[in-house]
Amino acid sequence: MNPINLSTLQSLLPDAKFQNCDSLSNVNFTGLTSLSLANPSDISFVASKNFVNEAKASKSSLLVVSSETSESLGDKAIVVVPKVELATAKIIRLFFPETKPSGKRSANVAIDPSAKIGSNTDIGHFVTIGKDSVIGNDCIIEDGVKIGDRVHIGDGARIGKNCVFFDDTIVGKRFIVFGNSTFGGDGFGFVFADGKHNKIPQVGRVVIGDDVEVGSNCTIDRGALSDTTIGNGCKFDNMVHIAHNCKVGDHVIIAGQSGLAGSVTLGNHVIIGGACAISDHLTLVDGTIIAGGTSLRTSPKTKDVYVGWDLGLTFPEFQKYRVNIKNIVNLNKWLKRIEIIEKKVGIEPKES
Question: I need a labelling partner for 86 at 20 to 30 A (CA). Which of 115, 186, 204, 274 fits?
């Protein structure tokens, strides 16, 4: 961990307002941590007004705060920023800088002579790279990665251990993927005839834009005929599955254990929560949000927050749906109470 000083922070956050920081000019900060764990050499942050009292009691000598909490912490040394989380992320990166490639290459690799490797790209142990593949500059290809034929990976990629890129996969710049993910394998396409499931050839590609990040154990399948496409700036959590022919827009977020069935189309800035199942051939318009645990079987008509198991309900509709379900479940209890009341007032029960 690299110690940093106040001057370094001021350079990092030129638009921030530093208040009550005169006594910190000679302090070397050694880390960034939570309010309760902070020591005088640590920087900490105040995520919301709910943490103001904890911030006042914190031993941290410098707090990263928003304008809404700054007035409550006027006697503390503070850095006032527009977005606390974003500033915090930048400071963490100072303490824990990213690994920089240096062009080192393991002797235990199998690279086809026709493949082109960019300058300053690291290649780990037991990596294989196929015919006519192109790897960009300043990449890090970790141990055990398997890259097929005619694969293109852009500059600045970070490829985690044991990832697999099947033939003809195209990946943009600054791509990040963690271990054991697979790109460009066959989609799940079969036709039932003569008493058996007959495979439909999957001859499309996977095409991924710039600045995409993918977690561990994810799968993005090649298209059957057309390409499976992932837009710029998408972020996928661990164990996400994108099936064949899906079209994912720009800056889409998909949380862990969620899957898109074949030929789903997602607009830009869609958010899909964890453990969601999106049925095939659905379309989600720009900005749609799918709450965690939802099983979506119909295309939402408008941008909204949707939740449920089948009907594609908005959140308020789902709340009404839950009330109705609860009433149905309790119906027998209500019928029993009505029978008791009828007996007390002398009403003869009617046979239905």
Answer: 274
